[in-house]
Amino acid sequence: MRRLIFGLVVLTALASGWWAFYAWSTERVVSQWMAAREAEGWLARYADLSVEGFPTRFDTRLRDLELADPDTGWVWRVPELFLGQRALRPDHLRAIWPREQVLSSSRESVTIRSEVMRSELDVQPAAQFALDASVTEMQGVEVASTEGWSMYLSDGRLTGQRVEGTDDTYDVAFVAEGLEPPGPMAALLDPAGVLPQRIGTVTYRARMAFDRPWDLRAIEERRPQISQIALEDMSAQWGDMLFRATGAVDVDAAGQPEGDIAVRAENWQSMVELAVNAGAIPQQLQGSIEAVLGMVAGLSGRPENIDATLSFRDGRVFLGPLPLGPAPRLILQ
Q1: CA-CA distances (angstroms) from residue 227 to 7, 213, 245?
Q2: Per-residue confidence at 299, pLDDT binned at 50, 70, 90?
Q3: The pLDDT value given to residue 300
Q4: Can you name the residues that pair with 57 across neighbouring β-strands?
Q5: Can you tell me the distance from the alpha carbon of 168 to that of 44, in angstroms, rounded to the nearest whole number?
Q6: How many other CB atoms are there within 10 angstroms of residue 69's CB atom?
Q7: Is the pLDDT of residue 221 over 90?
Q8: Whole-number Å distance between alpha carbons of 316 and 257
Q9: How many CB atoms lie under 10 A from the CB of residue 124?
Q10: Contact between residue 236 and residue 253 where contact means Cβ atoms under 8 Å apart
């Protein structure tokens, strides 16, 4: 019995010592990382850093955190950031984002308020915390800008899963319910107010390859850049309008896409009207564009719908035979 008690005492002492060492190491790694950012010209500061949760967890809290990247000009401010780890699973992180956070640039400042925003991440601690899998859940998210616009998201879920056997390819999915566009934009797009206040379900599912893994270097140096998108489904419904796209594109080092995306647009005439209201299509060209799109729609047998292919070639984009203009550059800032 005495040996058993002695063994338990020794085991408890070792476990306590290991927890204390890991907690000290966590604080040291975080403070050194922040110091390294400051040495590179960042603004990187916090009011307090603590690690709690003995003996089964490591709960790290950073209070009054502020990070400013001199290369992009973005500044991020949060009153508190919580990162949780189970003692037996240091490769699994749980992040609880604060109810209010501020993201600023030289042009504007955006305040993000949320009822719920939390993330679960599986990472590789020995490989710059490279991402293996992640799930982020969002509820009641309101985004308000100093430029006078705001938008709202009722529910959202973002997931990423590294494809087995690869280092830099991920299955990415985002589903949003109850997306309310900014008021000025909604008034511009729909001056008559005939559309629902909120867009219905917005879905994005794709396998995305990047030029390197998503790890700490994405914050320290630069964001990984897209090299390929295999689009399984991108769709949105707003009132009686439905847009859906599938296909695949390769993306070069300059961000130029090459490939084909099959698109379906139901009640496309309403979409053209929205584009004219927004100024994306000059009003004097509306009739000509509707005539051409009407021919494209007629090929599918249902004139109210368009089933066509968006082709990205040599820096330009085409809808079937119709040239639309320069292709967008897919660059992550």
Answers
A1: 56, 12, 19
A2: low
A3: 64
A4: 86
A5: 28
A6: 19
A7: no
A8: 9
A9: 15
A10: no
CA atoms within 13 A of residue 139's CA, in its CB half-sphere:
4
Question: Which stretch, 76-90, 100-114, 172-186, 194-208, has highest mean pLDDT?
Answer: 100-114
Measure Cα distances from 126 to 29, 91, 148, 216, 233 in Å.
Answer: 13, 9, 44, 11, 34
**pTM for this prediction:** 0.86
What does the DSSP assignment read for 56-75? TEEEEEEEEEEEE-TTT--E
Each residue's pLDDT tens digit, 190-220? 666 667 788 888 999 999 999 999 999 998 8
Beta bridge partners of 317: 312, 325
Q: At a CB cut-off of 8 Å and minimum separation 6, what does 250 contact?
A: 227, 228, 257, 258, 259
The Cα 90–Cα 126 span in angstroms is 11
CA distance 173 to 136: 11
The angle that helices 268-278 and 286-298 make with each other, rounded to 10 degrees, is 160
311 φ/ψ sector (left φ>0, alpha ψ -120 to 50, else beta): beta
Looking at residue 223, what DSSP letter applies?
P
Bridge-based pairing of strands 109-124 and 89-96 is antiparallel
